[in-house]
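Sequence, please.
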């Protein structure tokens, strides 16, 4: 298999995983009310709503970096931590799970439109965040892997009752 085929297969897999995340969360949370989705499974653990808000913040912060990579040649960026972003992005804290999931889903659809138009060379574009080099591909891979783990947490938390 040629290198370009491997890259294109990896891109296709990332796009599939990125597209699946909102639907996976919708399926896990189907039929549950906001009170249940807002309740942590145990003291000190995150509720499904808090996990969803965390995923939204991660996507916003990390996709800012992706857009910078696409707009500029090898930009240098400061890391913005998603937990800090949530604290400054007040709308998260006032929205229901359903509202948050709807926004997450719409933003994901927009992101997939952007990512779906990229060439393999675009996926290789780089930036420096603090002392690490990232590519569009590595950043999106990081996002979908991170989301997968948190989707498992939402599922476990909601089944743990």
């Amino acid at each position: 298999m040629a290198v370009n085929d491997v890259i294109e297969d990896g891109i296709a897999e990332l796009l599939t995983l990125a597209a699946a995340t909102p639907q996976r969360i919708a399926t896990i949370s189907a039929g549950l009310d906001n009170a249940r989705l807002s309740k942590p499974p145990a003291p000190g653990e995150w509720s499904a709503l808090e996990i969803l808000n965390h995923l939204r913040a991660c996507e916003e912060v990390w996709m800012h970096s992706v857009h910078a990579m696409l707009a500029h040649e090898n930009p240098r960026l400061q890391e913005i931590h998603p937990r800090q972003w949530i604290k400054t992005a007040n709308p998260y804290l006032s929205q229901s799970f359903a509202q948050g999931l709807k926004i997450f889903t719409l933003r994901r659809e927009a992101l997939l439109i952007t990512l779906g138009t990229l060439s393999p060379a675009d996926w290789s574009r780089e930036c420096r965040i603090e002392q690490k080099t990232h590519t569009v591909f590595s950043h999106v891979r990081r996002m979908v892997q991170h989301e997968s783990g948190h989707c498992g947490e939402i599922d476990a938390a909601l089944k743990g009752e």
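The helical segments are 3-29, 34-37, 48-71, 82-88, 91-94, 97-116, 120-123, 136-159.
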